[in-house]
Amino acid sequence: MDAASRSFEVWEGTKLVKRLSIKGVQGAPMAFSRFLAWMREQAVAEERRGKLQTRAFGWRQPSLWDDASA
After folding, report:
1. Three-class SS of residue 59?
2. Alpha carbons 50 and 61: distance in angstroms, whole number
3. What are the φ/ψ torsions at residue 53 (nearest 5 degrees)?
4. What is the rounded distance in angstroms from the CA atom of residue 34 to the CA atom of residue 39?
5. Predicted pLDDT at 44
6. What's phi and psi for 67, nearest 5 deg?
7. Is 28 helix (H, G, I), strand (E, B) or coil?
8. How far apart are CA 20 and CA 45, in angstroms?
9. Are 1 and 8 in contact, with CB atoms under 8 Å apart?
10. Backbone torsion region of residue 58, taken as left when φ is above 0, otherwise alpha when ψ lies between -120 and 50, otherwise beta
């Protein structure tokens, strides 16, 4: 994460692959605790959207903890 440019950096070894803007936090300083709360809210919303798509389209994303042999 590069706080100065308000972006996440994606690295492969020592090579910068991509810089992704942190959406929703541009333009104003934010306390780290508030940023964490905001990220938590975004994660919950993303989880809900995923569950809605799963039900609507019959998709199922396997869990990391699913038994692959089952």
Report:
1. coil
2. 9
3. -65, -40
4. 9
5. 86
6. -80, 110
7. coil
8. 20
9. yes
10. left
* Two tokens, residue 10: 């994606």
pTM above 0.70, yes or no: no
Type of residue numbered 35: F
What are the tokens at 66? Answer: 């699913």
Written as one letter, the residue type at 53 is Q
Residues counted in the chain? 70
Query: Whole-angstrom distance between the N-terminal and C-terminal Cα of the chain?
Result: 38
The predicted-structure confidence for 16-48, as pLDDT tens digits, reads as follows: 898 888 776 656 777 889 888 988 998 888 887
- Distance separating alpha carbons of residues 42 and 53, to the nearest angstrom: 16
- Please report which confidence band the pLDDT of residue 2 belongs to, taking 50, 70 and 90 as the band edges: confident
Note the pLDDT of residue 65.
65
